[in-house]
Every structure is written in structure tokens, then in C-alpha cells.
Specification:
Elements: H1 3-9, H2 25-28, E1 38-39, E2 45-46, H3 74-84, E3 91-92, E4 97-98, E5 103-104, E6 109-110, E7 115-116, E8 121-122, E9 127-128, E10 131-134, E11 139-140, E12 145-148, H4 159-166, E13 178-181, E14 186-187, E15 192-194, E16 203-206, E17 211-212, E18 217-218, E19 223-224, E20 229-230, E21 235-236, E22 241-242, E23 247-248, E24 253-254, E25 259-260, E26 265-266, E27 271-272, E28 280-283, E29 288-292, H5 294-299, H6 304-318, H7 324-334, H8 339-349
Parallel strand pairs: 3-6, 4-7, 5-8, 6-9, 7-10, 8-11, 9-12, 10-13, 11-14, 12-15, 13-16, 14-17, 15-18, 16-19, 17-20, 18-21, 19-22, 20-23, 21-24, 22-25, 23-26, 24-27, 26-28
Antiparallel strand pairs: 1-2, 28-29
Length: 373
């Protein structure tokens, strides 16, 4: 039948194959729908030549990811998506626990041991896997990977690593490192957060109301407190500890087993290989102490008098003569009865890696007592 005679017989219909969803080539050349065969096993729906074998049998089987044959408009689909909160292209494994009001955008993947708290939102193309728990109200942006296998070469599947790795899997042979994330965290694009390993605590813990900007990373067995900000590209290595209200600057790195104290601020590009004291400002490669985070103290609600005492403790600890034990004793005597100041002294006294020293200064210099830290 020619295209002209087909047009005279009736309107041209482009058939959609019920198996592979391809447009029929002959239909695009202008043949009528009557020339397309049907398959009884497919409910008498049209099957194109690409899916028909000898004798008209179907070669292509139905795909598990095939869209429904019933055509519905976006307007008809929208109420269903609003009720369920799960986009049709999102993949949720059996065993995953989704709380009330969870929203999964296009292309999201949720593993079988994942628990998402009430009101969590995975915007698009987010992967959450492993033994991972997200608290209520977390907002995760596209291309973030949460709960992935830790980047620890001791987990290699050979030699001694094989035995240790086998001992750290569940009954299904899945990786069992734990990742626990608190409530109302904002996790931006391309962030990676890893679970624990058998060589550490076995668990990575992240608190509440934290902000992880694009490209930031938290390694295995690390601990992150509350109200922490990881700026773009900031990274905390395995076993590190980031305390409450700390700010980690862009493209900076925190070494393994290193601590960043409460309210400390790490400048952009810093390489922190020693502990950053609470309420301190550290900067550089390797990071050096440059002063007190006065703006941070004010934002955290501390009084002018409290901030002044913290600055005085810093002078006694870092800009005075004597060995460290003597300076700690003098600072304790000055800060007696002040819990906030004592917490700074305790942090320095219990440091195992050493504390960031002042930049461009040596302890004991008579001029190392700046009026403004």
C-alpha cells in the first residue's frame, strides 16, 4: 500500500510497540495502523517488526523498567505523585523504611537497610545506601552519595583485608558500616558521607542542623556535632572530630584523628594536622592559630565579658613564656569557676596530636601578647 492510498484510506497513526516502545519504522514511512501486527500475549497491543521473530512471535520480553501502557497526562499523574511523594523513576529497595512525608525526586536510589525520617527530601539523583539513618527533615540535593563504602584501603578484598571485611558484613553479604545522621541537615550537591569501619568505632555520627555545601566530604568513623558548616570542597578525614558550631572553610582538609573544637573556624584552603582549639581561628598549610573567633562567639550568644575571658585564656595558653604544663596551670587559675573558659583549657590539655600554634610567632617571645586576637 502506497503512502497516498494509505492517506486516502484514513489518518496516519504512529504505532508504539508494547514491548520496546520504539516507533515502528514502517509507520514513520506512512503506512496505516492496520499494517502493524498485534501480539495476543501482549493483550492485542501492537508489536513492531523489531520485536517480531519468525511467524510473528515476540522476541523482546517486557522490561521491568517499562512505563505503563496506559497513557496518562502529566495533569492526571500529578495528584498521585503528590500523595505518594515518590517519583516514578525513583528506586526503593525492599526493606527500606520511609517515614511520613518523605519525598523522593527523579532517579533517587534508596538501599534496603536505609531509614529516612519523617519529612526527608531527596531532590533528584541521590544515592543512599548501606546501614544509614537520616533523621527527620533532612534535605539532600542532587548527586549526593550517602552511606557509600568507605575509602579505606584496609578494606581491600585480599589477604588479611578479606578476612576482616568478611567479618564486617551482614547475613546477606552487604557492607554493615553504620552512618547515623541527625535531624534537619542540609546536604548539597555532590556531598559524600561514609559509614564506619571495623578499624574504628564502626559508626560515623553526624548531629543536627548541619550544612554540607557542594563537594564536601566526611570520612569513615568521623564525628560531626551540631550546627556545623562544611563549606564547598571541605573534607574531614576518617576518625576526625568536628565539634558544635565549627566552620570548615572552602577546600580545606582535616587530618585523620584530628579535632576541631567548638566554635572554631578553619580558614579556606587550610590543612589542619593538629587540633584546632575551641573558638580559635586557624589558617594556612599547615594550619596555624591566628586569633579568637570573636564573631562566632557573638553569634553563639556569649556576652562581651565571656568573650574577653576567652581571649585572655588564649593569651595565657599560647602567647606566654614557659612550658605547656605551666601555661595550662596559669590559665586554670585565671579561669577558675568559668565553665566556658575551662572547656578551652581541657581541650588543650587532653590533645593527643598537639594544638595548632600561633602563626609567625614562637612561644616565649616578649612581644607575643597582641591586644587584639
Amino acid at each position: 500500500m502506497s503512502a497516498r492510498s494509505a492517506a486516502a484510506a484514513g489518518p496516519i497513526v504512529v504505532a508504539r510497540c508494547c514491548q520496546c516502545r520504539h516507533n515502528d519504522d514502517s509507520s514513520r514511512r506512512g503506512t496505516a495502523l492496520a499494517s502493524v501486527k498485534t501480539d495476543p500475549s501482549a493483550g492485542d497491543r501492537p508489536v513492531n517488526a523489531c520485536c517480531r521473530g519468525a511467524g510473528g512471535t515476540t522476541q523482546c520480553g517486557p522490561s521491568p523498567f517499562r512505563r505503563p501502557h496506559q497513557k496518562t497526562s502529566l495533569r492526571e499523574q500529578r495528584p498521585l505523585l503528590q500523595r505518594s511523594g515518590v517519583h516514578p523513576t525513583a528506586l526503593v529497595a525492599d526493606g527500606a523504611d520511609l517515614g511520613e512525608g518523605v519525598v523522593l525526586g527523579p532517579g533517587c536510589i534508596v538501599g534496603p537497610r536505609v531509614r529516612l525520617g519523617d519529612g526527608c527530601r531527596l531532590r533528584a539523583y541521590v544515592v543512599v545506601e548501606g546501614d544509614t539513618v537520616l533523621g527527620p527533615g533532612c534535605d539532600v540535593y542532587p548527586f549526593a552519595v550517602i552511606g557509600g563504602r568507605p575509602q579505606d584501603k584496609k578494606l581491600r578484598l585480599n589477604g588479611e583485608g578479606r578476612a576482616k571485611d568478611a567479618a564486617w558484613t551482614d547475613e546477606d553479604g552487604q557492607w554493615s558500616g553504620r552512618l547515623r545522621i541527625g535531624a534537619h541537615n542540609e546536604i548539597r550537591e555532590h556531598v559524600t558521607l561514609h559509614g564506619g569501619t571495623p578499624f574504628g568505632s564502626g559508626e560515623t555520627r553526624i548531629g543536627d542542623r548541619n550544612m554540607f555545601l557542594a563537594g564536601s566530604h566526611v570520612g569513615h568513623d568521623a564525628t560531626v556535632g551540631n550546627d556545623v558548616v562544611f563549606t564547598n570542597g571541605a573534607m574531614a578525614a576518617g576518625h576526625s572530630e568536628i565539634q558544635d558550631f565549627a566552620v570548615i572553610g572552602a577546600m580545606s582538609g582535616v587530618h585523620q584523628f584530628t579535632r576541631v573544637g567548638r566554635g572554631a573556624m578553619v580558614g579556606a584552603g587550610a590543612m589542619v594536622s593538629h587540633d584546632a582549639p575551641p573558638f580559635g581561628l586557624v589558617q594556612g598549610d599547615r594550619a596555624r592559630l591566628v586569633g579568637v573567633n570573636r564573631i562566632g562567639l557573638r553569634r553563639m550568644g556569649y556576652s562581651v565579658e565571656q568573650a574577653a575571658r576567652i581571649k585572655r585564656v588564649f593569651r595565657l595558653l599560647f602567647w606566654r613564656d614557659g612550658v605547656l604544663e605551666e601555661r595550662i596551670a596559669n590559665a586554670r587559675a585565671f579561669a577558675e569557676g568559668d565553665e566556658l573558659a575551662q572547656s578551652v583549657i581541657d581541650f588543650v590539655a587532653t590533645s593527643e596530636r598537639g594544638v595548632c600554634t600561633p602563626r609567625g610567632r614562637t612561644f616565649g617571645s616578649p612581644t607575643d601578647d597582641p591586644e587584639e586576637l
